[in-house]
Here is the input.
Amino acid sequence: MAGSRIDLSNENMELGSLSRNATSVGMILLVVGLVATLAMGALTGGAGHDSLGHDGGAHGEDHGADHGSAAHDDHVDDHAGEHDSAHAGHDDHHHAHGYISERSWLHPYLISYCYFLAITIGALFFVIIHHLVRAGWSSSLRRIAEGVSQNFIVMAVLTIPILLNLGEVYQWAVYDVGHDPLIDVKQAYLNEGAFITRFVAYFAVWIGFSVFFHRMSVKQDETGDPAISRKMGLATPVAVLLFALSVSFAGFDLLMSLDAHWFSTIFGVYFFAGCVLSWHAFLALTVIWLQKHGRLVRSINSEHLQDVGKMVFAFTIFWAYVAFSQYMLYWYGNIPEETGWYLRRQTTFTWGAWGFFLVFGHFAVPFLFLLSKHVKRRKTTLAVGAIWMLLVHWCDLYYLVMPQLMSGSEFPFQMIDVTIFLAMTGLYLITTAWFLGRAPLLAKRDPKLPEALAFHNA
Amino acid sequence: MAEALARIGGELDNTQDRPERREELILGGLNDTSITDRVCGIVETRPTKAWFLALLMSLSVLGLLGILVPYLIFTGVGVWGVNNPVGWGYAIVNFVFWVGIGHAGTLISAILFLFRQKWRTSINRAAEAMTIFAVICAGLFPGIHVGRAWFAYWMFPLPNQMAMWPNFRSPLLWDVFAVGTYFTVSLLFWYMGMIPDLATLRDRAKNGIRKLAYGALSMGWTGSNRQWHRYERAYLLLAALATPLVLSVHSVVSFDFAVSQVPGWHTTIFPPYFVAGAIFSGFAMVVTLLVPCRAIFGLKEIITLRHLENMNKIIMVTGLMVGYAYAIEFFIAWYGGNPVEKFTFLNRAFGPYDWAYWIMVSCNVISPQIFWFKKARTSLVIMFIVSIFVNIGMWFERFVITISSLANDFVPSAWDYYSPTWVDIGIMIGAFGLFFTLFTLFCRFLPFIAMAEVKAVVADQEHAAHAAHESGAAHDSSSGAEPAAAGAAG
Here is the structure.
């Protein structure tokens, strides 16, 4: 590390005993979450899915609140702006919906799954993009990203319950072929076999690249060979290409196809924005936590934190840009098959308020809060911003999944929505600590490390 | 200079990627004096015959515009090829094309500035000039498209006794604001960035008119610490303000199409897709302009192979984004299950305008793929050809979007084939005359390179070389270097 003024000889770059801290917190969350989930399930029946038949006709009661899918039934006269909950005869069309309106334990599970998948995807994106653009400033942070991205293996395991129970949340997995022309047309894409195949492919890409970059980087810790950096750099153009496609289609598959009638070309980008945003918030918190316990105190300083804060700020804006593009164009076009998705989210007060909360809580307020450089450089304020963004990102996913329940006519919140999330948070903490503990927290012989150590926001 | 650089194709090769060090961006051992001499020399020496020839050619093409625009105004838009379903013809295609070109300059100066990309300093001035001129070309088309050009000012919401207002719910009005704001801020940004360099020109000026002109333009710049301090603050703030504008302008232009219900237009990915396409075409135009200019004006050591390679990488990346958008649009047209939407996309690829569609795909998606190879990214000939292809492809992209969706929409009995008239084609070519005339004049009368900023990069380089020389000695960052180097410029 010649040329660097910062002396790392007594830098603490091992997770060491901290791993136990994280694991025990994780264990508590996991146990509390699991026990509470099971208890809730027993009390309310929320975890049961007995009422969900595998024929589309089983869930006809809540159809009144939705007009979105009217384009292909008899009610083409339906005006998207007018909401008439007493639409007579609507219930007769048992294939009117492209979604499942009855609650299953898989709905909150899907939210939690997408939440942690998003953070993991964001971590891989961080690794790839910083190699791709030959970034120097971030090399002292990169090992953390490499470690977190190892969680793809865990996420792959967590996918299995979804793949085994697609019919719990996806109408296209249980509908009767030939009874819904809008699902029929996309049957070649939306079917169980294709869905599972795609997820195998996505995880092959994600695990493949995250393991590759992590291995190479750890190998460099021993030799400091610049050829390794070059090799990683050479892999990135292909990596970023496959990454873009896999993340977009994963977004389509997991969240957009929840309503098999609805579609939006920007949806993959929307999912991507949430991934990168939540990852950077997670990164800021991780760094602050590590430093509080004496790790990486010299190799990461307020300059790096400011840049991580800038990324949170930038992707807060980017998320808003994408969300606005989607909403504005569908609102303006006012075509029922497109607006139905939003109508479910704004015909009741609670969901409407939730949407407004996202406008302010997910954009306006953090925008103003994160604008100042002092906020991004000070650990307390940055932590507040990061925690907030992680909370509202959960709200965003909740907003994407839950309004299909009872067609948005009632606010579906149950404690199980939180408890499943707590359990998965616990699991994620445990596995993250494990992955971070497997290698030093710093890519200590990265040839670009001196640049990161000397980095100043000029 | 740490070591002698190899050459590829007669060019100094600073494109090596070594993780442990940054390649130098300014080559040939140029220092503050030689940079000033080189750049000011372009303006101070007598113009060459080649320059006069270029100006003459641009002016004669501009003459086409001078004849055809009055002809259009006196005769009416009937001289165009627009017909009943296709009410938007070449004029809108050209408008979107030129606004797109006008994206690279401000992106380079604002967004790359925020990203701390120092290589921007060698190319930002010319790219910004290009931006301004491209937006001027773009602004021409809505003005003549209104039919009665003498009422073009009705596009603005001016209070009037007839209580007549433009439709605030129309994206065409938003365009007026978006493009107007973008032009204003880009112009300010360009001009403000130029002030220190204008002062350099003023200080070197020998004759009276020169002294007076550059003196007035440089607004009493002395290069004092205080002025530099203010200048740098203002530059950062303008960069932060210009950044959302780079994204918003083409997003609003995309709304012109996407808020409608026309198949092939009404799709949510349009805003980011248009922005990516704009950056794509803008960078292609920068490459088109700079490859010859750096040779003509002797700037090869300032605009190096690495600068060009970086731009080619951006062209490749944005080209892939555009390709992604094409693919997702096609996929969702099928997935959405709307038969008209599906028809529109198949019609684009295999219908009456398939020739335009495949020109677009070949130029925009296929041709930049050659940049996967470093040999191609660093070959002046190949990058010049690809940049021309991209320019053509992006013009055709707008043609495909505008024309094919309008010509064959919901009701087959209303379909008609659109063909441009000679007036359409003449005005399209004439706009290039306007663009190149302005750019040719810029080359001769304003500093082609942001000298002050390039000198800061040189100072950084020397600093880094010095630090590397004294191995193990204190390595400092760039923070202190800029005012010091910049001060030398005044």
Chain B touches chain A at residues 17-20, 22, 116, 244, 247, 251, 255, 258-261, 266-272, 320, 324-325, 328-329, 332, 334-338, 372, 467-468, 471-479, 482 (CB under 8 Å). Chain B is about 70% helix and 0% strand. Confidence is low (pLDDT under 50) at residues 472-490 of chain B.
